[in-house]
C-alpha cells in the first residue's frame, strides 16, 4: 500500500509538472519535489525503524527504494546530483562493514549513478535494464549489512526486487498512457500536414481570449484567410502540389507575422485552404499593416513544385469582437462573412468590417479548364467501343476553348478525371492522353499500373501517345504497362508520327490512330489507306480520327475501317465564359 500510494503521488505530481504551461511554475514545482519528497520520506522511514526495530529490514528496503528509484526520473544535472547525494547518505548510514568494503560499495554506487545518467531512457523504460540496476543497488546495499542474518539479507534483496518490478510496471503503464494522451492531444490540436494548430486548438484559444475580454473589456480581432482558386491547383497540378502550396503558405504567414509584429503569433489551419489568426488586445486598424503584409507576401511569392512555379493569392476577412457578441460563433461568422465578401469582390483582396479594400491592382489569371469524353464508334454496329478523355482550356486571347496542348496535367489529376468520368459511362474503356515524359516517368508508370490493376470500375485503360522516346525505351516501358493490362495507342500516325518512328515500336503497341484533319484533301485518303494496311498486316486496331460528316464515314468504310471518332458522332457543349 505504501509503495502504491507513493508511486501514485509521484506520478500525478510529475504529470502536473510536465503539463504546467509556465516554465517558472514547472521549475518551482520540480525543485520542491526533488528537494523535499525523497529526503522527507527517508527521514520518516528511519524514524519508523527507531520506533519499530522488529520490522527494521522492511523499513530499510522502503527507504532504499524511496531514495534510489527517483534516479530514474528525467531531471537536470543538479537535480540528479542531489538525488545521488541523498542515496549515498542513506547508504553510508547503514555501512557497518570495513572501510575497504564500504569504499567498494560506494564505487559500485557511483557506477550505478553514472550508468543511470548516461542511459537514462533505457534504464527507466527497458525492463531488463531497470531490474539489473535494481539488483545491483539492492545487492550492494544488503551486502553491507553484515550484522543481519544471511536469510534477512537475501530476503531484503528479493523484497526490493519485487518492489522494483511493481514500480517498473506502474511507471511503464503511466508513461505509455502519458505518451498516448500527448499524441492524441497533438493529433487533435495540430494539423499533420502544415504543423499549424488545428481547428480544435483554434476554438479553444478563441474561447479563452473571449472569456478574458468579457472580464477585462480589452479588444479582440479575428482574421480569416483563404487561398483563392485552390481547387484549380489541385485539378491542374495534383493534390501533392496543393499540399506543397498549403505548407508553403502556412510558413510564409507565420514568418511574415513574426517579422511585422515582432512577436510570435499562432496561425491556425481551420479547414481545407482556410487559415485564422487571433489578435488579442488589438483593433482591426492596429493590425491592418500586418494583414496587408501577409496578403502582399503571398501574392508576391512563387512556390515551386516538381520544377513548376506556382502562384496563388489569398482573400481576407477581418472583424473585431463587438458588445453584442454573446459567443465566439458570432465573431467567427462575421469574419467568415467578411472573407466571402472579398471572394465576391473578385478575390485577392481584404475586407475589414464590411469594407473591401481596393487593393487588386494585379489579378492572377487562373486558367479555366473543362473535360469531356469523345467516343470511338464501331461503325458496323453503331456502338461505343472506347471513350477518349479530352481536356480543353479557355484561351483569353482567342476567347474560345482550345485543346490543352500547353498543359501537362499531373497523373493524379488525370486519374481523378478518369474516376469521375467512369461513374457516368456505360462503356468503361477509357483512352487517356499522356505526354512523352509522363509515359516514361517511373512514378507515372507505377501510378497508372496500380490504378489499372486495382480499379474494378474500368475495363480497359489505353494510353494515347503522339511523341516517342528512343525505340528501345518505348518498348521496355510498353511491356511494363502491358503486364498490368494497359494498352498503348499511337495517335497521329502519318502526321505527328512518321513511318520511320512507328516501325521500330509497332510490335509494342495495340492500336494506331489516323487524324483526317492533318492532311490535305488530295493526300488524306491514300495516306489513310496506307496506314490502314500497316495496321491490318500487324494485327493492330485502326481508328479514323477527326470525322466531321457522313461522306468521311462512307469513304472510311470503303477502306475497311470500322472504328471512327470525331464531331460527326459526338460534339461536346462547352461552358460559356464571359
UniProtKB/TrEMBL annotation:
Matches recorded under Pfam families: EAL, GGDEF
Ranges annotated as spanning the membrane: 32-51, 71-94, 101-119, 125-144, 151-171
GGDEF domain sequence ranges: 218-355
Entry keyword Transmembrane: yes
InterPro entries to which the protein is assigned, alphabetical: Diguanylate_Cyclase, EAL_dom, EAL_sf, GGDEF_dom, Nucleotide_cyclase, Rev_trsase/Diguanyl_cyclase
Tree of life domain: Bacteria
Keyword list, A-Z: Membrane, Transmembrane, Transmembrane helix
Residue intervals of the EAL domain: 349-578
Keyword presence, Membrane: yes
Span of the signal peptide: none
UniProt GO MF annotations: diguanylate cyclase activity
Entry protein name: Signal transduction diguanylate cyclase
Organism expressing this protein natively: Lacticaseibacillus sharpeae JCM 1186 = DSM 20505
Amino acid at each position: 500500500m505504501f509503495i502504491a500510494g507513493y508511486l501514485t503521488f509521484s506520478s500525478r505530481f510529475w504529470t502536473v509538472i510536465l503539463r504546467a504551461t509556465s516554465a517558472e511554475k514547472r521549475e518551482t514545482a520540480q525543485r520542491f519535489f526533488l528537494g523535499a519528497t525523497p529526503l522527507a520520506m527517508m527521514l520518516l522511514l528511519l524514524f519508523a525503524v527507531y520506533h519499530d526495530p522488529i520490522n527494521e529490514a522492511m523499513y530499510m528496503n522502503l527507504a532504499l527504494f524511496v531514495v534510489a528509484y527517483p534516479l530514474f526520473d528525467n531531471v537536470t544535472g543538479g537535480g540528479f546530483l542531489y538525488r545521488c547525494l541523498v542515496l549515498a547518505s542513506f547508504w553510508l548510514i547503514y555501512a557497518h562493514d570495513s572501510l575497504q568494503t564500504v569504499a567498494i560499495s560506494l564505487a559500485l554506487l557511483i557506477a550505478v549513478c553514472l550508468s543511470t545518467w548516461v542511459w537514462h531512457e533505457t534504464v527507466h523504460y527497458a525492463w531488463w535494464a531497470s531490474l539489473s540496476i535494481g539488483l545491483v543497488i539492492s545487492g550492494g546495499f544488503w551486502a553491507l549489512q553484515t550484522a543481519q542474518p544471511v536469510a534477512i539479507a537475501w530476503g531484503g534483496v528479493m523484497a526490493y526486487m519485487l518492489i522494483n518490478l511493481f514500480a517498473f510496471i506502474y511507471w511503464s503503464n503511466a508513461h505509455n498512457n502519458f505518451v498516448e494522451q500527448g499524441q492524441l492531444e497533438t493529433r487533435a490540436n495540430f494539423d499533420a500536414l502544415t504543423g499549424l494548430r488545428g481547428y480544435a486548438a483554434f476554438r479553444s484559444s478563441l474561447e479563452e481570449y473571449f472569456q478574458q475580454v468579457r472580464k477585462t473589456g480589452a479588444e479582440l480581432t479575428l482574421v480569416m484567410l483563404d487561398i483563392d482558386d485552390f481547387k484549380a491547383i489541385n485539378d491542374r497540378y495534383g493534390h501533392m502540389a496543393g499540399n506543397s502550396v498549403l505548407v508553403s503558405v502556412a510558413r510564409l504567414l507565420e514568418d511574415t507575422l513574426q517579422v511585422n509584429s515582432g512577436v510570435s503569433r499562432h496561425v491556425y489551419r481551420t479547414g481545407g485552404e482556410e487559415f485564422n489568426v487571433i489578435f488579442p488586445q488589438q483593433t482591426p486598424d492596429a493590425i491592418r499593416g500586418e494583414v496587408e503584409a501577409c496578403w502582399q507576401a503571398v501574392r508576391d511569392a512563387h512556390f515551386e513544385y516538381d520544377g513548376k512555379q506556382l502562384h496563388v493569392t489569398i482573400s481576407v476577412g477581418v472583424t473585431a469582437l463587438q458588445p453584442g457578441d454573446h459567443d465566439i460563433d458570432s465573431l467567427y461568422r462575421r469574419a467568415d462573412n467578411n472573407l466571402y465578401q472579398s471572394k465576391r469582390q473578385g478575390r485577392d483582396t481584404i475586407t475589414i468590417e464590411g469594407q473591401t479594400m481596393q487593393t487588386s491592382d494585379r489579378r492572377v489569371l487562373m486558367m479555366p479548364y473543362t473535360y469531356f469524353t469523345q467516343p470511338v464508334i464501331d461503325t458496323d454496329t453503331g456502338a461505343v467501343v472506347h471513350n477518349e478523355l479530352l481536356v480543353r482550356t479557355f484561351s483569353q486571347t482567342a476567347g474560345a476553348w482550345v485543346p490543352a496542348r500547353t498543359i501537362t496535367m499531373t497523373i493524379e489529376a488525370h486519374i481523378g478525371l478518369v474516376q469521375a468520368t467512369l461513374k457516368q459511362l456505360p462503356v468503361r474503356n477509357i483512352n487517356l492522353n499522356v505526354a512523352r515524359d509522363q509515359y516514361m516517368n517511373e512514378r507515372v508508370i507505377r501510378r497508372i499500373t496500380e490504378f489499372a490493376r486495382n480499379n474494378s470500375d474500368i475495363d480497359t485503360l489505353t494510353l494515347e501517345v503522339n511523341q516517342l522516346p528512343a525505340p528501345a525505351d518505348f518498348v521496355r516501358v510498353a511491356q511494363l504497362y502491358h503486364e498490368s493490362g494497359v494498352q498503348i495507342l499511337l495517335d497521329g500516325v502519318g502526321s505527328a508520327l512518321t513511318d520511320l518512328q512507328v516501325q521500330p515500336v509497332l510490335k509494342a503497341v495495340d492500336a494506331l490512330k489516323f487524324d483526317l484533319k492533318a492532311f490535305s484533301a488530295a493526300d488524306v485518303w491514300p495516306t489513310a489507306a496506307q496506314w490502314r494496311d500497316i495496321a491490318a498486316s500487324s494485327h493492330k486496331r485502326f481508328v479514323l480520327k477527326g470525322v466531321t460528316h457522313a461522306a468521311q464515314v462512307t469513304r472510311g468504310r470503303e477502306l475497311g475501317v470500322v472504328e471512327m471518332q470525331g464531331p460527326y458522332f459526338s460534339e461536346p457543349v462547352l461552358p460559356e465564359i464571359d
